[in-house]
Write a structure and sequence with these properties.
single chain; 53 residues; mainly alpha; 2 helices; rod-shaped
């Protein structure tokens, strides 16, 4: 009657690690994009000259 599978704690930990790594990567990308936009707004001439090369 008790035919339930035991939950594997290793799988839960691995899912947690994957989610944490994805959050870190997303945060780094978000910060990089927002900092680039702020830099481009503060230095429009320099950003335009480097983009044309």
């Amino acid at each position: 009657m008790n035919d339930q599978r035991k939950k594997n704690p290793v799988r839960n930990v691995s899912i947690l690690i994957v989610v944490a790594v994805l959050l870190v990567i997303g945060t780094i990308l978000y910060n990089a994009i927002s900092q680039k936009r702020a830099y481009d707004e503060a230095h429009p001439a320099e950003a335009a000259s480097t983009a044309s090369h």
